[in-house]
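Researcher: Here's the sequence for the chain we discussed earlier.
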Amino acid sequence: MDKISTHISGRLKQLRSERRLSLDELADKTGFTKSYLSKIENAKKVPPIGSLARISAALGIELSQIFQDDSLDAEADPQASVVRATQRRSVVRGGTTFGYDYQSLGGRFPTKRMDPFVFTFPTELGEDVFFEHEGQEFVFVLSGQLEFRVGDEEWVLRAGDSIIFDASLPHRGRAVNDDAKALVVISSDDSEPS
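Model: Thanks. This is the structure I predict for it:
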């Protein structure tokens, strides 16, 4: 396993322990099996972002807290959090189950209700691969073209296009070419509507 996977597994174990939850209790809260959660915590399985969103909701935390590195030097105060271009970190690499690459932009804003990422999308994706999680998702295409599907509808999105949707609906994005990147913002389900 790469060091990102090892970080995620250790971080999940730490966060679960801090909340004094057993694997059985976390399994009940997430709907995942104890065996699956154990494999994640022991770095034997790399979960997709949708599974991590479900686990973070069960732990009562923001998704970005799973990826948080205490050594990250993001500038944060109660009013703002700055993440410099040189501090952006890949939180899940192309070694994840489906080939997505996530670069966290969120920093350590204490009352954050969204998780912003730069996604690089895979060009190959199995027909049955879809994601579902709490909250809403906003996607702004930075470069390339994406085939993007939400529920039964599908669109081709190009640089400059955007989409916002209920993330509890099955959704997926696939790069049409090799240079498809997008800003993706995932809001938590308790965000106040604006």
